[in-house]
Amino acid sequence: MTIEVFAVLKDYFDKEFQLQSSAKNILELKQQLIVQNPEAANVLQLCRFAVHDEFVNSDYKINPNDTITIIPPSSGG
Q1: Is 50 part of any domain?
Q2: Measured between alpha carbons, how far is 15 from 34 in angstroms, rounded to an integer?
Q3: Which of 11, 30, 48, 75 has the smallest number of Cβ neighbours within 10 A?
């Protein structure tokens, strides 16, 4: 699968990277990413996940060819 990250997550991961994962859903993927980079745990817990540009819930079943975008919270004015 392809993972894309934005904003502060680029401090912890490449902007886009390939990931071989046995995660069955978004929740398991998030847990795997936290194990891979524990320093990103606080941010990852607050992120929204999208697959092919559509937001998904944590129980979304991951497919190997998915492009998963991880979007941290943002503020603006």
Answers
A1: yes
A2: 16
A3: 75
> pLDDT 10s digit of each residue in the chain, 77 long?
999 999 999 999 999 999 999 999 999 999 999 999 999 999 999 999 999 999 999 999 999 999 999 999 886 55
Q: Is residue 23 part of a domain?
A: yes
CATH at 25: 3.10.20.30
User: What's the domain count of the chain?
Assistant: 1
Domain holding 41, by residue range, is 2-71
At 58, is the secondary structure helix, strand, or coil?
A: coil
